[in-house]
Queue: 2 jobs
Job 1
Amino acid sequence: MIKLIGNNNSVFNQFLFEIRDEQIQKDSMRFRRNLERLGEIFAYEISKELNYSATSVQTPLGIANLPVSSDKIVISSIMRAGLPLHQGLLNYFDKAENAFISALRQYEKDGTFEMEFGYLSGPGIDNKVLIIADPMIATGSSMVMAYQSLLEKGEPSHTHIVSVIASREGIQYIQKRLNMKNVTIWLGAVDDELTVKAFIVPGLGDAGDLAYGPKD
């Protein structure tokens, strides 16, 4: 299932506009904060899909009954670009466990590249709700690699993939390689074009560099 939040009129699109704007994105602190705020909105929308049960709470004047989710959540992000988005999700799912994945593009002289897995640090995910965050899905290969690596730590009850901007090609790649019966993809926008170096057009540029500065 794919849920495209940017199709609905909301403040979400203001933050999406700002991270795309080449002038506003020069402010790296604002860029990180906008990714974080987008993560918070994604978290709110995902919360509607969780399991809930009636729970009693003692107030100073009596007892109130409220539906509260009992799902155990693991938030995983692909470093380094995924960190601000991860923080936004964690702001709302503040009891969640956390996992971090290192993935890297290794370019060849002809401009082609392969995704290289670095390491994975995180808890077991058996019967937990897994959320994987990466601001951009270009070819989709890093997301598939991250998901498959996480499965070494167990079988989640459901997986939510969160990305602000994806390419149509990247989404199709993921759909062909993952069991979509147990996966929901949450997106802000889907762009149609990829460059020969697999950058999304119009996209926004390199999210990691915009958030944390250029790398050598």
Job 2
Amino acid sequence: MSSQIVKYERSVKLMFRRLGILIVALSVSLGWVPGAFTQARDASDSSEYLIKAGFIFNFAKFVEWPAPSFAQPDSPIVIGILGTDPFGAIIDQIVQDKKIGARGFLVKRLKWAADLKDLKECKILFVGASERAHIDDVVQAVKGLPILTVGETPGFAEHGGVIRFVLEDNRVRFEVNVEAARQADLTISSRLLTLARIIQQATADSRKPG
């Protein structure tokens, strides 16, 4: 399957090089997946999560972490998948052998509370839909840490997550909470922000149940 991932990446990169935007899958319809990949994928390898995995890899190109957040110049960018993993092997294949500067990638599957220390060592943290019930707890647990939190449940960005995936017209889009990014000491490229819907963080009062 790795050769199919490579073909996928090349075709999408070529498409967006022509547009001058180097971010995988932007505005690509969920109905479009390379034929060979469609035939070979298993139940977890949906086109939606292929595209989202491509986004997560490319977010790392457009986000700057403070230098002290990495132990060494070549320390990997740790991607944590918190809760039920919707990606399967896709995200591992997307980042395999990839580097940004001297940094490679390491993917970890985590569980809330049990892997709290590992959660705090992530640089990108995808919060799965299974964690909907305690999103506020997750956000509070990593508040002030240089972690790019990414989710897909409604209200994720308003509740302090940095990026939330949304589906619009069968396409993957994303929202960005710039205040949450600032609190995490993350610098997000203006090139990425121009592609996002900017979300304001909800106040504590507005998040209380009525």
